[in-house]
Amino acid sequence: MKQFSEIDPLTIANDSRLVASIPDSTDHETTWYFLVDGDHLIIADAAFRAARKRWLHYQIEFPKRGLLWYLDTLQNKFFKTEAEGGLPKGQFHDKTVIDGERLKLGRAFNADGKGGGGYSFVTLDRKESYGTAKEYTFTDEFLFKNGLIQVLQNLADKVRAGQL
Question: Does the global pTM surpass 0.85?
Answer without folding.
Answer: yes
